[in-house]
């Protein structure tokens, strides 16, 4: 679960990280009212679940109310790479002397979280990692979090001034603690700013909570903003499907994560591009198939759909029933290729056959067929 900046800053505040005051507005009037209380110069910041807002024109520093009114009007409703801005965070502008980076992520290879810090903050950290990797220090974290001596070493890497190091070290420790206690998959401050009066501030917050840990944090579940997420992903989650949107044109409905991956590999192998990963799971619930079809047919990029079902616990006839029910409800013109084999395969074929549909049993053949259909539809 991806959090908005203002939500991330709220969590930062709750663990004692230095965050400037701020409030969210959904109109220029509200923005003016907030800035009137918090003071100018102010920053208006688009609240969308995507980074690089500054570059896209979604972050503006303003000196006077008339500038804020104009900029707020421009940012609200703005489209930032497919994300519509509905709310802006209004916060007093800090005077920035230096911009640092601090983030905790999971290092999958090392099988442990890692704190990354860089004196080249403010900008895209991936770019820093690529162009000047020596400007990033990595500190792996064990079960005890970030010990003080390692936090101090990281602070020294960022700034040579003792006074600033003393302010930075606790920020790094608290960030590492927040990452662990809230089961984050990312906790990032960029920029972590130093002001001319030698104060340190978290001016941005990027927090991603591991969805699989949300049961342990019932208080955080309410932070989810379905309106800002991909509608397909929202519907999939509600219906208990495991769905990930990809870039291609071939919709996939598969039972089992392993088979779903093998299916995507095979599509790629034969020169096609999957539009999604979608696992309807091991259940025999026709509703899930209907939900899957409704997600895929709403996706304008999908040119053809492949059903790849290996009947074990999942029964082929249930999937066929779900598909037919979905077609009755949705009535799509998208070509559908079906491959099924295993439990109740016969019954499934009879059900589909009665509606003039055939199912293949060879996976390779089915993948080639769906790629051909997608190409014809393009
Ligand atoms: P992002 O582009 O989505 O990562 O949004 P950020 O919150 O990081 O803002 C982008 C940039 O706006 C920052 O790198 C800063 O240079 C600038 N910015 C953000 N907050 C302030 C502020 O309080 N004062 C000043 N002067 N600049 C700010
Ligand atoms: Mn940022």
Secondary-structure map:
Elements: H1 5-14, E1 23-25, H2 28-38, E2 42-46, E3 59-62, H3 65-75, E4 79-80, E5 83-84, E6 88-92, E7 98-107, E8 112-118, H4 125-131, E9 137-140, H5 148-158, H6 162-181, E10 184-194, E11 200-202, E12 206-209, H7 218-221, H8 231-238, E13 242-245, E14 250-254, H9 257-269, E15 276-279, H10 286-298, E16 304-311, H11 316-330, E17 336-342, H12 345-353, H13 363-377
Parallel strand pairs: 14-16, 16-17
Antiparallel strand pairs: 1-6, 2-3, 2-6, 4-5, 7-8, 7-10, 8-9, 10-11, 10-12, 13-15
The structure holds guanosine-5'-diphosphate and manganese (II) ion.
Manganese (II) ion binds next to loops.
Explain what you see.
With 378 residues, the protein is α+β, with helices and mostly antiparallel strands. It folds into three domains: 21-92, 2-Layer Sandwich (Dna Ligase, domain 1), CATH 3.30.1490; 98-221, D-amino Acid Aminotransferase, Chain A, domain 1; 230-377, Rossmann fold. It contains 13 helices and 17 strands. Strands 7, 8, 9, 10, 11 and 12 form a six-stranded antiparallel β-sheet that branches. The chain has a four-stranded antiparallel β-sheet with strand order 1-6-2-3, with helices on one face. α2 crosses α3, α5 packs across α6 (162-181) and α10 (286-298) packs across α11 (316-330). The model has no long low-confidence stretch (mean pLDDT 94). The structure holds guanosine-5'-diphosphate and manganese (II) ion. Manganese (II) ion (MN) binds next to loops.
């Amino acid at each position: 679960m991806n959090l908005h900046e203002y939500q991330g800053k709220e969590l930062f505040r709750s663990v004692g990280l230095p965050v400037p005051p701020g409030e969210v507005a959904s109109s220029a009037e509200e923005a003016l009212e907030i800035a009137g209380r918090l003071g100018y110069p102010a920053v208006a910041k688009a609240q969308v679940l995507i980074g690089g807002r500054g570059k896209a024109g979604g972050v503006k520093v303003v000196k006077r109310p008339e500038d804020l009114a104009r900029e707020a009007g421009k940012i609200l409703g703005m489209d930032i790479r497919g994300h519509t801005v509905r709310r802006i965070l209004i916060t007093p502008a800090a005077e920035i002397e230096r911009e640092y980076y601090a983030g905790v992520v999971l290092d999958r290879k090392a099988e442990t979280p890692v704190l990354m810090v860089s004196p080249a903050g403010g900008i895209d950290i991936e770019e820093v990692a690529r162009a000047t990797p020596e400007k990033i220090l990595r500190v792996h974290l064990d079960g005890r979090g970030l010990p003080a001596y390692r936090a101090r070493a990281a602070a020294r890497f960022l700034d040579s001034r003792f006074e600033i190091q003393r302010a930075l070290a606790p920020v790094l420790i608290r960030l590492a603690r927040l990452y662990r206690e809230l089961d984050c998959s990312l906790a990032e401050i960029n920029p972590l700013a130093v002001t001319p009066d030698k104060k340190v501030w978290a001016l941005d917050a990027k927090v991603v909570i591991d969805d699989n840990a949300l049961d342990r944090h019932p208080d955080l579940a309410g932070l989810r903003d379905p309106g800002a997420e991909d509608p397909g992903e929202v519907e999939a989650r509600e219906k208990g499907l495991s769905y990930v949107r990809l870039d291609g044109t071939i919709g996939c409905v598969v039972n089992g994560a392993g088979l779903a991956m093998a299916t995507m590999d095979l599509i790629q192998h034969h020169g096609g591009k999957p539009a999604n990963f979608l696992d309807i799971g091991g259940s025999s619930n026709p509703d899930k198939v209907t939900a899957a079809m409704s997600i895929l047919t709403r996706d304008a990029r999908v040119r053809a759909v492949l059903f790849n079902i290996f009947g074990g616990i999942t029964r082929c006839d249930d999937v066929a029933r779900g598909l037919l029910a979905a077609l009755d409800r949705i009535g799509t013109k998208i070509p559908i290729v079906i491959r099924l084999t295993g439990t109740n395969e016969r019954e499934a074929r009879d059900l589909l056959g009665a509606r003039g549909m055939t199912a293949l049993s060879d996976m390779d053949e089915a993948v080639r067929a769906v790629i051909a259909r997608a190409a014809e539809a393009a």
